[in-house]
């Protein structure tokens, strides 16, 4: 005798890339999908069924919960690197992250991948969610990102050695091997390399690892059955990382044909994560982002999108990532935006775009057998959307359109207030001013 939840009457987009199926029933028992279609509907009259809770989804769309393959759950919508690296108490980082997890769930994100976490809290947070200590999406996570002393995107804030914020500095092959092993011991599901970094006075991001170093990281991780991802904002980095065994390329900015060839022959996947760039380009002026960046980022998206489309046509697995965790990409607001960009800039159909946040995301979660599609025996991570994302993909980026979130078989209470909090002492870095107060500005 089982209790069953029957979701009835809705149109099913199952996440496999198949065409939507109207009026398809879905039966859930415990945390599992146990039947679909007529078989699900018939369970209502089955004598072995104890109690049926029916969720009427007529006129609505039923989909797998969204899988965000690139976000930073411990960054707390940060406004500057200074804040991120030097002003965050580790205990508060964990407590605040736990609150932010609830925002993501409410936006329909039932799983995410986090490459690197402040103070390395990722594995502990993941374990706390799995054990039911805190409520949140399923998590797969790195510990900290591995950076060479050149750093990533924080320039000279990155020390020459040691650990700071989400960064672990590695200075030679021995340290790379050591830290990959340590992170795996501390519970890393992924190893993240910050393959490119910005150097003051040089344009763009440069590849700041050499080939042997990347190879050492990949070999060491792979020997312990842990995959490797790399932040690659530059053509050369995409090619070298793919050639040396990186499993997941983040950004792949300015990828060229040689890079694509390496990605294809290594079987790497790509998570472009256009959302941050697109938000800055489209809305940066609304939040006083550094002026002048709009055109640069719009150009980066345009140029990169052509190659990502080519990769897609060549069978490369493309993932949806939002880069949530920054002031430009706050939690719970932008997890569906990447799909809109995939439809508009890559010319994917909405159903194809949805696959990047469902079936393909399950690969990044290393749970392809259990997640990402609505099929019998999969885990019950399901969202119900009021309107039709195949008509308008942007509805997936609008929380008010997501009327039901079922995570691990449990229906979330969306009538609860949005998680909020008072200011935390010392958490934000105050700026004296965002512009220079010249005499002219004051009096002219
Ligand atoms: Zn990122």
Question: Keywords for this structure?
Answer:
444 residues, alpha/beta, Urease, subunit C, domain 1, TIM Barrel, 2 domains, seven-stranded mixed sheet, five-stranded mixed sheet, 14 helices, 21 strands, binds zinc ion
Overview of the molecule:
This protein has 444 residues and is an alpha/beta fold. It has 2 domains: 4-64 and 390-416, Urease, subunit C, domain 1 (Roll); 66-372, Metal-dependent hydrolases (TIM Barrel). It has helices at residues 37-42, 81-86, 90-106, 122-130, 173-185, 211-223, 235-243, 257-266, 275-283, 293-313, 337-345, 350-356, 359-364, 439-443; strands spanning 2-8, 11-12, 26-29, 32-36, 49-56, 61-64, 66-68, 109-114, 138-141, 145-147, 163-164, 167-169, 191-193, 196-197, 206-207, 228-233, 248-253, 269-271, 382-385, 402-407, 410-411. A hairpin with a 2-residue loop joins strand 20 (402-407) and strand 21 (410-411). The chain is globular and about 75 Å long. The chain starts with a strand and ends with a helix. The mean pLDDT is 95. Zinc ion binds at residues 70, 72, 115, 323.
